[in-house]
């Protein structure tokens, strides 16, 4: 069963095309990396999959999650709210509410599936609080539950955001550059956490990344965007630096770390041969 | 001296060229426009001189004797009825309290509805125009209208402050909402929350300190305004003050003014402290 299906997605901002005719399928339980230079359309694609943006009006586009339509023909479905509940989103800037406690930020994850009046008044029951604390425990920051979110470090805030997505009980987590604002140690920790919930909970994960090293290390499959189009979709191991340079030209520089961390994956000779040919 | 301390020709800024003349040219357009502005102000002042009866300033000197009688009466305040004054002063503060409270309650939804980042133009524009109208009309005018509608007394004052303050607070609230960081709100939306929950969890926590500060500041101003409202019969200390002045009871009027000054000062100080705590 296909978890996320994107068909013929096009989006213009003014006269500039951010995405043109993007189609892709992410299977249930996959962890897929989405890479591309700045302005290649990664964030725009993720926001469309999350039901936060609608495609160009009257385009033949369609986005489904678990065969339920989120948007079609450039319009979000009427119950987009209940679809958003099924898709957890993690943002580059964490998007927590800084003045609220970490606990409240995580409890927000249940809003989509409890009666509206109870959520609006903040009347969370003991079981919901238990779920939120368990999620915080899982990402390793249970001790911060009572602190204001703004007092946490970037890495801790991002882990709180992951806990919020876990509490949401989403089938899919879309992470939009989750590690772009973090130091390497926090970045690895976030990627490890995402990999753990992907493996243990079977949550499908699409993670957009600026640096291809992380894609090679954590994701079996990579989708590369260039100029709003899918430029590559296949095994991450085939993405050699030479191939990226071919794909992005000078823009490839920002995708490749000068001193790339050692990966535990063997470089794929086939991809290398293809790129070098 | 290390090597890095040496002047580096490639990093140095442009050097003065002795052949060039470096005097700054006067910007004549700017100079003329400056003179024009001052000239316009002078013309406006001259034009308003007679309509504002500014030529009567000599009376300040020639009728100084009247002023002196006036001043001596005011210099000996009569606190004989102080219990009555304090009771009426408390009523004035109570009028301000209720007027401000009602305005805050109504300004929360109106402030959200008037924000361009929360609602489409066909909602926020009409709400803003309505708030403009509430603001444009002075409390005194509203008080006169409410005295006709609900009769003499404090309730007319409460309603007048309520309407006028709503016009001010809803605008200030919406300006705070328009300045929020949209990202936390998007984070809330992404969880499947509804629109009201987006506001409750994503917007209000961000603007609450500012809203509290604005509300306290308006309460401060409303205590001052409420003393004036009494003058046209809307209850409180103002009414007592007006009656004493009209009856030439200047020592009593002086005592009342002192009570007002002390009360306004205390409210200002208290509210300043609270506002510091809010932000």
SS strand fraction of chain B: under 5%
For the record, the count of structural domains of chain B works out to 1
Strand order of the largest sheet of chain A: 7-8-9-3-10-11
The name of the CATH topology of chain A is Rossmann fold
CATH class of chain A: Alpha Beta
Given as residue ranges, the uncertain stretches of chain A (5+ residues, pLDDT < 50) are: 261-277
Q: Which structural category do the helix and sheet elements of chain A fall into?
A: alpha/beta
The H-and-E topology of chain A, N to C, reads as EEEHEEEHEHHHHEHEHEEHH
Oligomer: heterodimer
CATH architecture of chain A: 3-Layer(aba) Sandwich
Distance between the termini of chain A: 36 Å
Total strand count of chain B, please? Answer: 0
Low-confidence stretches of chain B: 1-7
Largest sheet of chain A: 6 strands, mixed
Helix tally of chain A equals: 10
Tell me about this structure:
The complex is a heterodimer of chains A (277) and B (279). With 277 residues, chain A is α/β, with parallel strands linked by helices. Helices cover 34% and strands 25% of the residues of chain A. Chain A has a six-stranded mixed sheet with strand order 7-8-9-3-10-11, sandwiched between helices. In chain A, strands 2-1-4-5-6 form a five-stranded antiparallel sheet. In chain A, strand 10 (221-226) and strand 11 form a beta hairpin. Chain B is mainly alpha-helical. Chain B has one domain: MetI-like (MetI-like fold, Orthogonal Bundle), CATH 1.10.3720. Chain B is flat and about 65 Å long. The chains are: A alpha/beta (277), B mainly alpha (279). At the A-B interface, helix 2, strand 7 and helix 4 of A face helix 8 and helix 9 of B.
